[in-house]
Predict the structure.
Amino acid sequence: MNRFAMIGQRMTQAIPSIIGIIIVTFLLTRALPGDPAVYFAGPAADEQSIAEVRAALGLDKSLPEQFWLYLGDLVRGDLGVSISTGRPVIEELATRLPASLELTLVALIFAIGTALPLGILAATRPNTWIDHLCRVVVTAGVSLPVFFTGLFFVYIFYYIADLAPSPLGRIDIYFIAPDHVTGFFLIDSLIAGDFETFRAAFAQIILPAVSMGVFVLAPLARMTRASMLQALGSDYIRTAQASGLSRSKVLFAYAFRNALLPILTTLGMVFSFMLGANVLVEKVFAWPGIGSYAVNALIVSDFAAVQGFVLSMAILFVVINLAIDVLYTIVDPRIGMEG
Amino acid sequence: MAVIEQPDDKIESSLAAWWRHFRYVVSENPVTLFAFCLFGMFVFLAFFGPWIVPFDPLASDTSSALQPPSWKHWFGTDNLGRDVFSRVIVATRLDFMIAFSAVALSFVIGSVLGCLSGYYGGWTDRIVGRSVDTIMAFPLFVLAMGIVAALGNTVENIVYATAIINLPFYTRVARAEVNIRRQAGFVDAAKLAGNSDARLLTFHLYPNILPPMMVQVSLNLGWAILNAAGLSFIGLGVRPPSPEWGIMVAEGATFIVSGQWWLALFPGAALMLAVFCFNLLGDGLRDLIDPQRRT
Amino acid sequence: MTDTSDIPLLAIKDLTVEFKTRSGVVEALHEVGFEVHKREMVGVVGESGSGKSVTAYTVMGILDRAGRATGGSANFGGFEMIGARERDLRELRGREASMIFQSPRTALNPIRKVGAQIEDVLLQHTQVHHRDVKQKAIDLLAQVRILRPEQRYHAYPYELSGGMCQRVMIAIALACEPALLIADEPTTGLDVTTQKATMDIVRDLTSARNMAAILITHDLGLAARYCQRIVVMQSGEVVESAPTDVLFSDPQHPYTKKLIQATPRPDSRLEDLSDVAKDDERVSAATASTELEVEGEAPPLLEVRGLVKEYPLHETAERRRVMDRILRPNLTPSPSVFRAVDAIDFVVGSGESVGLVGESGCGKSTTSSMVTRLLDPTEGTILFDGEDIGAIPARKFARHPLRAAIQMVFQDPTESLNPRFSAFDAIAEPLRRLGAPMDRTSLAHTIEELATMVGLPTELLTRFPHQLSGGQKARVGIARAIALRPKLLILDEPTSALDVSVQAVVLLLLDRLRRELGMTYIFVSHDLNVVRLLCDRVIVMNEGRIVETGKASELLTNPKEDYTRALVEAIPHFGQSEGMPTLEGSVA
């Protein structure tokens, strides 16, 4: 058995997804009502610049030829030029990506750190107060619009309690951003050994990360509880109990490792939610990530920017799913082995 | 071919059994009853909202702008002096309309596609599966943003976008449910009784997969409302001054840092309550259908 | 001789267990009591719901949350198991008393190597030093007669067959050399030959270690072959407990008598089952002996020639093959098909009853699906009344005039009934689709007639499947199958999901219907004893091919092929003295 070959095979399975994404984003640009060139050139464009854009996109050519041009642009990393800033879209996205990633990862750590223990506790003590608490948290969590949670965190922790800094950006204006190493302020400040900056960055990120985390906590806790319950009710747990294995062994080596598989599957969905919620949270907290970039671009009808945003988010999501698949292959020996 | 009605007592007995089961589930879990009542209230407001509100939701009155909640204005007034309570109530219809039409669209299309691909397998399954996978390859909210941005900034396009991003769930549920029953003895028995594929899917398989689909519908409605509100929060779809929960929260957001919390709180709370209601309803329906599968 | 000290190893007394359910508290066990002595194997026998598994779970303290022991005691070597602290029980489980379960595949952790699962138990009870644990696990695998144990040590359960998994379970259970082994339906779902191999291992290993064992089973024959004493349970109570030979030669309780009568033996005849059935079946069973003997020379109704069914081995393998064909056209395609049915020929005469017998995976179900025209054959002809129905695609056959002439009774009466159709609608369905048009009252009349014919009380017709018992559902399935008066009825293991007493009734019913309606039967089953009760002729299949064909009585008493002989010998049954003295014999 060869794990590496299996992981390699998983990688190739992502190719159809990427092809699908490229086709869909291409079709979306061509589905624009009226003349796409007008959209891409922006509302302030004159006849000449519209004509230039039309030539650049190849809109006067046949659809397959246009697609070929589009593919060529993608290969060169050319996502067009943002009409609002005049800079290439890919550059803008690249500078803003670390901010979004940092926010998403902190939110994810918070969500997993809360959801897994909650779900496991609820599953091992069904119909106790902790189980009911889990149920309430789970249902309330998914019901909270993430932008609404964010706003009221701001109201409570900034306006009333004055515990949080003003909800504007990644770091308070009195601090200077740490030297760029990873682009993650939390990590970069630690590398620089600047704990004051770390504290400031942490204070900024905690509210947006928690509001995002609360939103995805629910599906994770729910799935943890359900899959733990299912694992605990299965025959092999009975075998383990009948052979007198210790409680922790039964719970973790037998039940939890099996329960992990459906949780990993849910993680894909959780990331889908998070990348969407990113946009909303970044708007609320004026977070300088790619989500708020896309919102601003939408307002001024900066079409190339929006398109670039959708495409890069989708590619990011495919990469994340791939990572989850690889993780799954590591946990579950059965994957791809029946062939 | 003769059409034979079911004997009346049979319908009654199954109805009675269902009612008994319903009462059992509700008594086990009163939250479900609460959810049903809440749902009734929202539907009532969606139908009759415009006639029962105290103020015109669009009429501005700058003299009474930004007033906190009072006896006159239960939810306060916004920066243009419009009554937030009236606007929240009237918005129910628009939000529910968007969610219901989107979910109905994806339910119909998704269940047909899912049934076909689950039943026939092979190439049908591969094509449907590949298309669904492509939708799922996007972060769904981001895809909805892209679709609305491309198709144009209108309410109908919000509906289409929400329908498209919901489609995979229905297709997958229908496909999975048909797939596990495709080999079941009762399906073979129906073939032996001379049912064609179409009849078999419609009259034998579909009624059996309907319950899990309905659970999905209920859970999805909440999600659809959240999505629609999220889109209008970032300025897509519904345009001001139309009252809509998402847009009202967005408008209220600017005032929250200066302490006027009521502008965003009440529409946000209404939104939350609606989604909460659908989620509880989904759990309740799940219990109704299968008490063993409670999670 | 055996150590027959008076103190039993396990003494269960007045054990009462209650379950909390939706409809209130239900008593699952009522004052159950029996003893297990050292070095004996005790069989606990009963039909589903008799409480035999609940007894074992209660003793081991692994009953699920809804159940609770409300009274009685279970004394295990001086230690009271009922009400003991969980920590003490955990010490005891696996080390002093262990258990093996049915469906061994799901009873093992699917994502942990089997070697590691054996080691878990050894390390838990500190039986061996860390350094030696792997060798000990491999030794255990060898002891349960697993070939190449060093390699199997690294295997995951999904890589092993069901029988292999059960051997691994036995290795886990015996790892710490416990004094008692409880085997809960250990061979249900396994083929007869695998069943015999598995039970032989259990018997040999327990007797070699001077262990006591409890065998929980629904199969009287199995208990008779391996146990020295048998405890019979019925709805939560022990009705009789006796040494095996005494129990069979002189059963005391009426339920025991009924159970013994209902269990088919190699020499039993259909009318032997008749006492089990209620009055309605008894009358007809009396006439069974005067049955007309249909010989093979009857005009053929069904003629199967060179029937083949192939499946692609794996979907990705199939896809890879297609890709290969495109990318590398000169490459000879690798064999990527599996022949489930491999060129078989047989003839079924009109009015005949033919048994199709074999172990799981032998192709008998695939064959019956093709004959029923639910599945398209890859090659070959199926002539029905002279017409080649094999050439008509299965999808089109639903509306073919011959559809009504070939019907089927399914294996699992529960899942073969649409949960949303009442019994009435289930029986009416074929009449509405394929029958002559009739109005509402005459349809209702026809269905009532059918219900009466299969012994289903007409007031049950309005019920839905979940409101019917297993036997009643089986009757609905039979009524539906005969509604169109088919010429050929295929019975696909129609009784394998039923308890023996219900099985007896259904067998009698099927026999009566065949004679009354002049139908031809193909009886698909894994159980030779059942098949011979109903069939004149038997076809034995193995690995997609026909091994042997012959008259039922001759084939069972004097099989020509080795495979058939192994199959016949593996069937456990009582009335033969074979299994009983083995323990004493092997220990000496």
In short: Chain B touches chain A through 50 residues (CB under 8 Å). The mean pLDDT of chain B is 82.
